[in-house]
Inverse folding.
DNA sequence: CCACATCCATACGGAAACGGAATCGATGAT
DNA sequence: ATCATCGATTCCGTTTCCGTATGGATGTGG
């Protein structure tokens, strides 16, 4: 059976066309080289070199073998370097799941920084509902999720990356839309558009405490999952809402955003599965400033 | 240093994802397989398989390595098969030199038969003057020559393949052109266009003996090397000539070909260098019906 | 013409690598 | 709790490989 040693020896001899010189370049002596070349020729059943009295030269078949062996060895070298890069998380695939809200504030800058630092990692983006992030990470269908803190499984890790205040959103036609002074308490009697609690418990709690602090319990008229759908419905005049401040970036016509005094911060961050062995996950976490503690503790919710 | 054995073992394990089954498929026991995989991982500095309690699976880097290793092994297999084919003369390059005259009669059928039988041999055709055939073969610049017998070097081999009679060629405007009865003796006083003797001694001798048998010595007006140039000059009315019968195929307007009674045959064949190691030469010779006697005797001239 | 140098092939001995049998340790299954 | 499964480890006999020394063929220079 042919071995790589024989190929390496062959390539050296094909280059030097002299057993002594080739052996020297391989840091071995001449007899082993002679034997390995003979063994290779015997395995192939083909004479690769014609040994004349004063010269060694490649046969036609030898030149053919040299061509192919060169590409085979190059392919093998590529395999080694590529695999090492893969293991270092410098190449491969990272599957990023995110909710639309996170996309507005976190996604662009994080992905820009990461793909600049690791251009050989292909990014597979997938926007999902907040409630689907946890299961996707658990099942290994995604490597990292960008969203608010999740009350998901205890086996996932979470690190906060950004905080921002909430803001009220109301139809542009609403009397309060043009007011210079705004207090959330003014919305006490307005119909609210919110989302189911289990979709994003932390965000839901922030919205609720915002209202309670102003002394009222919101009257919920509609519930839908995605924040941008909420803004869309507000634009249609169906109600008002309280959403993360970065939703302003939507620049949706027909709505007005209003800052909320002493708004509780809503937090965004990354969630991942510590059992995930994708090396690109480590490079990503390092890139976004998460020091890997190595602990596999549960997510901080 | 990585060896092919490790790649083969790796591929088997990557396929079976079970050390016992993979070892069985390799006709070895499990311990050596474990060791070789470990050694491969150590050489790469990369963990290729994640061994869990009840399952073995490829890591991301392992999948990457599998991809590249597969193509590298395929390239190597291609190298082996291609090299063996090369050695059998089933692929490679055959450099065929020939004179124009041989091209009319020998070249098409021989090359058709050969390239049908050996489609992976690329043919490099090169038309040369007869006097250059021998040196080209001697210097290894050509593998085979199609021409008439050469008085060239004693180190070359020759085998006859075809014989044909000579024929006279004269301008269409010549009084003899339309004659039904023709004898070469009628050209005794015509200016002849021939070629230098050393260009093709055997053919030259045949032409001369043709005339002498008719009782005259040709009056040579012009000499040029190539037979078709001779026919061109005859068409211009510069003289007459005696050329191989297959020159009729030129269908040159302005000339008439006349059969010669009891013409001495002119012979065509192949010339090659017995020291030439190109395996395609052997397949070519076998293909055209030359049994290789293995003797390295001089050419039969 | 003969001694010599060059170069590849071959013979032999020690070292390293390999494969096989037995065993260990960990993990699920019954 | 017992057993079965599976990969890792240990130990040993065999094979393979490398290095030194030598052989054999060829070309060179005195």
């Amino acid at each position: 059976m042919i071995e790589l040693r024989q190929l390496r020896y062959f390539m050296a001899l094909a280059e030097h066309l002299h057993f002594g010189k080739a052996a020297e370049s391989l840091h071995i002596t001449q007899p082993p080289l002679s034997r390995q070349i003979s063994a290779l020729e015997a395995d192939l059943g083909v004479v690769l070199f014609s040994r004349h009295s004063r010269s060694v030269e490649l046969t036609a078949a030898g030149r053919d073998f040299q061509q192919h062996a060169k590409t085979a060895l190059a392919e093998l070298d590529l395999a080694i370097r590529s695999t090492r890069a893969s293991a270092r998380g410098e190449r491969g695939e990272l599957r990023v799941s995110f909710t639309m809200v996170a996309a507005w504030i976190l996604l662009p800058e994080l992905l820009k920084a990461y793909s600049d630092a690791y251009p050989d990692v292909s990014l597979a983006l997938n926007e999902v509902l907040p409630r689907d992030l946890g299961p996707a990470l658990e099942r290994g269908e995604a490597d990292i999720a960008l969203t608010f803190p999740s009350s998901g499984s205890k086996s996932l890790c979470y690190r906060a990356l950004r905080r921002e205040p909430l803001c009220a959103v109301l139809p542009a036609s609403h009397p309060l839309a043009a007011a210079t002074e705004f207090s959330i308490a003014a919305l006490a009697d307005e119909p609210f558009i919110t989302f189911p609690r289990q979709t994003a418990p932390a965000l839901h709690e922030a919205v609720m405490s915002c209202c309670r602090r102003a002394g009222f319990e919101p009257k919920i008229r509609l519930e839908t999952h995605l924040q941008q759908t909420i803004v869309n419905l507000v634009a249609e005049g169906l109600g008002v809402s309280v959403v993360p401040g970065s939703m302003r970036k939507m620049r949706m016509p027909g709505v007005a955003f209003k800052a909320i005094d002493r708004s509780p911060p809503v937090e965004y961050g990354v969630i991942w599965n510590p059992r995930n062995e994708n090396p690109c996950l480590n490079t990503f976490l390092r890139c976004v400033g998460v020091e890997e503690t190595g602990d596999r503790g549960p997510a901080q919710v």
The domain at 4-88 of chain A is CATH 1.10.10.10 (Arc Repressor Mutant, subunit A).
